């Protein structure tokens, strides 16, 4: 009986980590239709920022929740000014450029820090349900996912910043005639998307092996979830993250992790076949 | 513009002179330079397997430098041509071909994962280049052109499993990387568990890029084993040990591993995550023999930030030295003469102790050690001397079948 709780916690873990990983990409892709193949590397930079600052003595919570997003947000800002700014509207070119960017980032990190990096232990301990153990960190990740969801929803729906962002998303030309500078909106959106991705990387740092190439494992799933979610930035991502996260974890529990992955990709294929516009093309239409 | 005869003559004179002078321009060495013996090196220095490959390259370089300092081999200096295969099997195939055909090396030391070894071994067989594989692996390679100096399951797993079962209990749960090494090692683990009266509750395989072990940890808890046997490989799989500790499972079920430590895990994991993990290898950096200490000292002096100096590095050093001994004995660099000399009872006293080549299997009889992790370093518990490669010996006899070139897979 208790094992079902444990599996449920696993599913929660899968959904929340998938959601956190995709949120930054959903913001960037949803706003600017830029395919950012360096998404995995932003995650890696967030993980490295957390690990390096925590090992240098910074409190682990500050390292995860403040240092990582700040650092990656700044990096995102620089990248936007130097590279992404020239690629709006050029889909294929943005893929090539960001792919090259990802290779560059991996190379720089390898040169500075080498191939392996000492990580940080998970801050919270474990607890038992019946005779089984689970980790408080799972609950923490789920909590952070809800917090981020609430934050994005709150900012987008209730603040002036969110209003400007939504307007630019819908119709940049019209927004420009009303006094909004789209270029500046894109710049801040990219930086914020990068910061959110950095936060996700920082949150995942205590439970991953930290190597320069760690981002590669996350890119495909992140894109799949964002595209499967469809045009609605928040509700679409929540829906597809829930679907794919649940399929993955339940499949992995009853068979093996390999088949868990196979099931997710099969589900994605079926989803796109049935709902070509993603989940939010049919449900949650018009929502945020 | 009309092409006059004068122009034509002037241009062809210029072209001819350039062609004749080209070798002098392109050569970077002096005209009378000695022709070196070329050693090829194929190791990963980037990607998930880089933490294993980097110390191996340092050890190779150390061995070559020591040989050159002693006057070289047969009066000729050694030269290393090294390719970084970037943890990518395609690169292995490509560079193996390049080493054999373009660089025309006299011997190759390389390959790390079993997949990489099997990708390059046929190339070296085809182009008749002597090949040394200096990494612990699952056993069974039977190839006259190849010498495997690393430990095989009969030398390490056979000692690890009973020790672990004595400490923990009879029910084992096996987790392994999903490629030839992991699959075959899992079979060996199953055999030794059964031989010692235990049972294997389940065997799970993970591709090399899996990072999320949450459901696996739940499954392990549901199965309630006494012991976990791990053959996980590479940087992504270290996440298992992290997630295991974060779920509060550390200390509840002991872990014994045939691969823990090869990608620098004791340094990258916290003490809480790695303490009490059991391992058995042919060499540990923490050994206190004079030969081992001086070996480690030399490597750390030349490369202060080297990753952990594991069995892989020690075997690479011993592999190069064994090959050099074979060349000296054969008094020639010709491949078949060197192979005959290597089969004729060559031994070397290396960092791990005495290592001798075995004629029927082309593997080594060497020492093995059992250790557990304490405070992010290994603490050696037991040593076994002169352990024979019994697993390969049971399927491979190169004296009877010298033309054998396959890898035998244990049939359980």
Q: Would you spell out the secondary-structure blueprint of this structure?
A:
The complex is a heterodimer of chains A (288) and B (412).
Chain A: H1 2-32, H2 39-55, H3 60-82, H4 91-113, E1 126-129, E2 132-135, H5 136-158, H6 160-170, H7 172-177, H8 182-204, H9 216-229, H10 233-254, H11 257-274
Antiparallel strand pairs in A: 1-2
Helix pairs in contact in A: 1-5, 1-8, 1-9, 1-10, 2-3, 2-4, 2-8, 2-9, 3-8, 5-6, 9-10, 10-11
Chain B: H1 5-26, E1 37-43, H2 50-69, E2 78-84, H3 89-101, E3 107-110, H4 114-126, E4 130-133, E5 141-143, E6 146-148, H5 157-168, E7 171-177, H6 180-195, E8 199-206, H7 214-223, E9 227-231, H8 238-246, E10 255-257, H9 265-268, H10 271-274, E11 278-281, H11 290-302, H12 311-330, H13 335-342, E12 347-350, E13 353-357, E14 364-374, E15 377-387, H14 390-393, E16 405-407
Parallel strand pairs in B: 1-2, 1-3, 3-4, 4-6, 7-8, 7-9, 9-10, 10-11
Antiparallel strand pairs in B: 5-16, 11-14, 12-13, 13-14, 14-15
What can you tell me about this protein's structure?
The complex is a heterodimer of chains A (288) and B (412). Chain A has 288 residues and is mainly α. Chain A has a single domain, classed as ABC transporter involved in vitamin B12 uptake, BtuC (Orthogonal Bundle), CATH 1.10.3470. Chain A has eleven helices and two strands, in the order ααααββααααααα. In chain A, strand 1 and strand 2 form a beta hairpin. The longest helix of chain A has 31 residues. In chain B, strands 7, 8, 9, 10, 11, 12, 13, 14 and 15 form a nine-stranded mixed β-sheet that branches. Chain B has a five-stranded parallel β-sheet with strand order 2-1-3-4-6, sandwiched between helices. A two-stranded antiparallel sheet of chain B has the order 5-16. In chain B, helix 5 crosses helix 6. At the A-B interface, helix 1, strand 1, strand 2, helix 10 and helix 11 of A face helix 2, strand 8, helix 7 and helix 8 of B.
């Amino acid at each position: 009986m208790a094992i079902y709780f444990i599996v449920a916690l696993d599913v929660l873990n899968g959904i929340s980590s998938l959601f956190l990983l995709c949120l930054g990409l959903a913001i960037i892709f949803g706003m600017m239709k830029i395919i950012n193949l360096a998404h995995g590397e932003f995650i890696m930079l967030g993980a490295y920022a957390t690990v390096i600052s925590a090992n240098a003595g910074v409190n682990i919570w500050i390292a995860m929740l403040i240092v990582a997003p700040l650092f990656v947000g700044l990096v995102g800002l620089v990248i936007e000014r130097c590279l992404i700014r020239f690629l709006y509207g050029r889909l294929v070119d943005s893929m090539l450029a960001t792919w090259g960017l990802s290779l560059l980032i991996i190379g720089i990190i390898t040169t500075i820090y080498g191939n392996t990096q000492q990580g940080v232990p998970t801050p919270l301990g474990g607890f038992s349900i019946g005779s089984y153990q689970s980790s408080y960190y799972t609950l923490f990740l789920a909590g952070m996912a809800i917090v981020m969801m609430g934050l994005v929803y709150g900012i987008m729906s209730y603040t002036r910043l969110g209003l400007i962002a939504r307007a630019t998303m819908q119709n940049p030309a019209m927004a420009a005639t009303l006094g909004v500078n789209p270029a500046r909106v894109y710049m801040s959106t990219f930086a914020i998307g990068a910061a959110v991705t950095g936060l996700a990387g920082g949150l995942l740092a205590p439970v991953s092996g930290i190597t320069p190439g760690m981002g590669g494992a996350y890119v495909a799933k992140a894109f799949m979830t964002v595209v499967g979610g469809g045009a609605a930035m928040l509700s679409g991502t929540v829906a597809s993250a829930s679907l794919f996260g649940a399929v993955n974890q339940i499949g992995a529990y009853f068979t093996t992790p390999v088949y868990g992955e196979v099931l997710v990709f099969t589900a994605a294929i079926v989803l796109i076949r049935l709902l070509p516009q993603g989940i939010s093309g049919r449900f949650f239409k018009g929502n945020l | 513009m009309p092409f006059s005869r004068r122009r034509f003559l002037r241009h062809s004179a210029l072209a001819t002179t350039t062609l004749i002078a080209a070798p002098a321009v392109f050569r970077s060495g002096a005209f009378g330079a000695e022709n070196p013996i070329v050693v090829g090196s194929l190791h990963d220095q980037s990607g998930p397997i880089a933490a294993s490959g980097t110390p191996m390259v340092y050890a190779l370089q150390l061995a070559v430098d020591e040989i050159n300092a002693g006057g070289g081999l047969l009066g000729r200096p050694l030269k290393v041509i090294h390719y970084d295969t970037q943890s990518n099997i395609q690169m292995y195939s490509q560079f193996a071909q390049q080493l054999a055909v373009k660089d025309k090396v006299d011997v190759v030391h390389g390959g790390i994962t079993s997949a990489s070894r099997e990708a390059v071994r046929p190339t070296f067989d085809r182009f008749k280049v002597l090949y040394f594989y200096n990494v612990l692996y699952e056993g069974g390679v039977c190839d006259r052109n190849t010498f495997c100096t690393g430990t095989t399951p009969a030398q390490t797993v056979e000692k690890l499993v009973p020790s672990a079962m004595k400490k923990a209990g009879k029910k084992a749960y096996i987790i392994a990387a999903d490629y030839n090494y992991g699959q075959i090692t899992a079979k060996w683990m199953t055999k030794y568990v059964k031989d010692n009266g235990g049972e294997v509750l389940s065997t799970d395989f993970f591709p090399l890029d899996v990072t999320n072990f949450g459901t696996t940890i739940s499954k392990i808890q549901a199965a309630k084993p006494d012991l976990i046997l791990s053959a996980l490989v590479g940087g992504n799989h270290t996440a298992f040990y992290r997630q295991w500790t974060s779920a509060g499972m550390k200390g509840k079920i002991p872990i014994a591993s045939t691969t823990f430590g090869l990608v620098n895990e004791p340094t990258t994991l916290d003490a809480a995550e790695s303490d009490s993990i059991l391992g058995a290898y042919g060499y540990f950096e923490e050994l206190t023999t004079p030969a081992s200490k001086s070996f480690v000292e030399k490597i750390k002096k030349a490369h202060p930030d080297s990753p952990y100096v594991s069995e892989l590095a020690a075997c690479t050093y011993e592999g190069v030295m064994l090959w050099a001994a074979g060349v000296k004995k054969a008094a020639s660099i010709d491949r078949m003469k060197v192979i005959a000399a290597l089969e004729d009872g060559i031994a070397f006293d290396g960092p791990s102790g005495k290592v001798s080549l075995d004629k029927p299997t082309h593997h080594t009889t060497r020492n093995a050690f059992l250790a557990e992790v304490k405070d992010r370093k290994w603490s050696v518990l037991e040593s076994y001397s002169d352990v024979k490669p019994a697993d390969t010996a049971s399927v491979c006899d190169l004296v009877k079948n010298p033309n054998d070139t396959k890898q035998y897979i244990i049939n359980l």
